[in-house]
Design brief:
It contains nine helices and nine strands. Mean pLDDT is 87; it is low at 1-15. It has helices at residues 20-33, 41-48, 52-65, 81-93, 95-111, 153-159, 164-170, 186-199, 240-261, and strands spanning 39-40, 68-70, 76-79, 114-121, 124-131, 146-148, 202-205, 212-218, 227-234. The strands form two sheets. The chain has a six-stranded antiparallel β-sheet, sandwiched between helices. The chain folds into two domains: 13-79, Arc Repressor Mutant, subunit A (Orthogonal Bundle), CATH 1.10.10; 94-261, Beta-Lactamase. The protein has 264 residues and is an alpha+beta fold. 44% of the residues lie in helices and 18% in strands.
């Protein structure tokens, strides 16, 4: 089975106590969440590997409940509006997101650049909140976007809060390249994580998006950290003075947000 992410797998997990239909439902929703657009039954079946007849019945049930939608022909499927409602509920009810809002607002005002709050989920980071830059030339990242942790300043800042052996267990020896600048060797990444621990912040040097440099810090209200904030700025607008101001502002924001989240 190739179309899943995370821990929702049928079979032997949890001593075989998982309910197969529930696991398949979650895996289907994760399939559509990770692949925007509409997909044929054959394409879905090829990815998830379920018998076509049971897959069709499960899809029709999810369509009736609003979790999956179909096109006008009724032969192609995509994520439904119910998923948006649940995702919005997660953001609205998250205590860290609520506690971070004043800090994100202030950081965006101080730097005039795009600010993100993200959470580590397996080997990826998921964006929970964004403040857009005041400049015309600026990056656009939507809440709910998932990116490889090793290719982002957010992810590297969070991975740096893990022990080296934990990182080795989490990540494969060879990492996927997002751009030509992405670090694809796990041991080289681990060397950078050690430097991040020393200086207190991570840098994404066009490793996720060409023309964009990002700086990130983990929020250590728990160990290892699961949340981080970052500032993204186009390379064309970045000067040494601006970079220093951004990293100083991020470290200050980290300290303030750590205090705000310590009781969570």
């Amino acid at each position: 089975m190739t179309g899943t992410r995370g821990g929702a797998h049928s079979g032997t997990a949890n001593g075989g106590s998982q309910v197969k239909s529930a696991v398949r439902t979650v895996e289907l929703l994760e399939f559509f969440a990770g692949r925007p657009g509409m997909h044929t039954l054959a394409a879905v079946q090829e990815s998830v590997g379920y018998p076509k007849s049971s897959l069709y019945m499960l899809l029709r049930t999810l369509v009736d409940l609003g979790w999956i939608e179909t096109d006008a022909t009724g032969t192609r499927y995509g994520i439904g509006v119910r998923a948006l409602l649940v995702g919005t509920s997660y953001i609205d009810g998250d205590e860290v997101v609520a506690a971070a809002r004043p800090t994100l607002d202030r950081l965006a005002e101080d730097t005039t650049e795009t600010i993100h709050l993200a959470r580590l989920d397996g080997t990826d980071v998921v964006y929970l909140a964004t403040r857009q830059s005041q400049h015309y030339l600026r990056p656009f990242t939507r809440v709910g976007r998932r990116l490889p942790a090793h290719a982002t300043s957010l992810g590297k800042a969070l991975l740096a809060t893990h022990e080296d052996d934990q990182v080795r267990r989490l990540l494969p020896a060879t990492l996927d390249a997002v751009t030509e600048h992405t670090i694809t060797d796990r041991e080289r990444l681990i060397e950078e994580l050690r430097a991040i621990r020393e200086r207190g912040y991570a840098v994404d040097r066009e490793e996720n998006t060409l023309g964009l440099r990002c700086f990130g810090v983990a929020i250590p209200y728990r160990t290892p950290a699961r949340d981080a904030i970052s500032c993204s700025v186009p390379v064309a607008r970045l000067t040494p003075g601006h970079e220093q101001m951004i990293t100083d502002a991020l470290l200050d924001a980290r300290d303030r947000l750590t205090l705000a989240t310590r009781r969570l």
